[in-house]
């Protein structure tokens, strides 16, 4: 797998705005939605935001509110960063105009019960960066609205590096590589090596059930592991450790996985094709960490 370079030009208009008060949110959102409503031939814009901010928009838009899709952001951002990629790609395929034309106001979820850990934050910044590559061919206009009262200065500063309209924007490949350079926790002493070079679904399922996953979750975890293993090609082995919900499997291969979009590009149909197992694994697992090991690659899958 080879590295995909950052596009020299992109149809995707990926913007960022930061607000710290209700009036600042409206000062950002209303001009964007007005721009969207005036765009000829575009579908109605969508605002994905915190419920309180959606109420502000309803009041401010008045009769125009019926011309804007209003979606609580907890209904859009329901899982991992990879799930958000799938949600966005699916919505654009079903609702965008020709070439992907549509305006989306998008407020990520950072606080409350969905407060992000440092590791989760890194995953979401990677998602913001890779969106510049994933959606580059589409004429979509996205405004990512960051509430500084919730996200905090460190998250806002990191997100600015992922948005082309800021003065600190960085190449998405470089930024993703920087995030991937953070070392993963070392292998625990009790990690269990599965027999043979490639894990079988039965072996993973049985181990996961013994370590606390329900039958349904054990089945999903086993499928994620075996699909990822099939996508990686010949393996040097598989290790398992942890207890429910955080069951972990690490796969090792002599193959280099250099593409930062590996497992993020949505398949063209609902049926997985050869090589798309990492996409399925990212949809199922909370984390899929791909690391360069010099002579090969390790892929660590954490279920919960």
Strand order of the largest sheet: 1-5-4-2-3
Structural class: alpha/beta
Low-confidence region ranges: 1-9
Strand content bin? 15-25%
Rounded to the nearest angstrom, the distance between the terminal CA atoms is 27 Å
Give an overview in words.
The chain is an alpha/beta fold and 304 residues long. Helices cover 40% and strands 17% of the residues. It contains ten helices and ten strands. Strand 2, helix 2 and strand 3 form a beta-alpha-beta unit. Helix 4 runs parallel beside helix 5 (118-134) and helix 8 runs antiparallel to helix 9 (215-232). It is elongated, with a radius of gyration of 20 Å.
Question: Can you describe this structure in just a few lines?
Answer:
The chain has 304 residues and is an alpha/beta fold.
Highlighted features:
10 helices, disordered N terminus, 5-stranded antiparallel beta sheet, elongated, alpha/beta, 304 residues, 5-stranded parallel beta sheet
């Amino acid at each position: 797998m080879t590295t995909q370079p950052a596009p020299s030009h992109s149809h995707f208009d990926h913007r960022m705005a930061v607000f710290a008060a209700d009036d600042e949110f409206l000062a950002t959102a209303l001009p964007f939605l007005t721009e969207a409503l005036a765009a000829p031939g575009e579908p109605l814009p969508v605002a994905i935001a915190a419920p309180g901010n959606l109420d502000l928009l309803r009041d401010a838009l008045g009769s125009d509110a019926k011309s804007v899709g209003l979606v609580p952001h907890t209904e859009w951002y329901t899982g991992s960063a990879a799930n958000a990629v799938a949600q966005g790609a699916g919505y654009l395929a079903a609702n965008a105009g020709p070439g992907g034309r549509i305006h989306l106001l998008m407020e990520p979820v950072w606080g409350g019960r969905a407060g992000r850990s440092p590791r989760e934050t890194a995953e979401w910044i990677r998602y913001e960066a890779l969106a510049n590559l994933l959606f580059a061919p589409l004429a979509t206009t996205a405004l990512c609205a960051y509430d500084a009262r919730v996200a905090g200065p460190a998250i806002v500063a990191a997100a600015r590096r992922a948005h082309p309209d800021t003065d600190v924007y960085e190449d998405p490949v470089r930024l993703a590589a920087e995030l991937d350079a953070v070392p993963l926790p070392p292998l625990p002493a009790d990690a269990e090596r599965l027999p043979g070079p490639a894990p079988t679904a039965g072996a993973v399922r049985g181990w996961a059930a013994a370590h606390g996953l329900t039958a349904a979750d054990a089945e999903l975890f086993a499928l994620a592991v075996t699909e990822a293993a099939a996508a990686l090609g010949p393996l040097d082995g598989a290790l398992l450790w942890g207890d429910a919900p955080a069951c972990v499997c690490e796969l090792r291969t002599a193959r280099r996985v250099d593409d930062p979009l590996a497992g993020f590009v949505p398949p063209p149909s609902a049926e997985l094709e050869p090589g798309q197992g990492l996409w399925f694994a990212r949809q199922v697992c909370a984390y899929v960490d791909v690391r360069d090991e010099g002579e090969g690659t390790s892929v660590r899958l954490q279920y919960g």
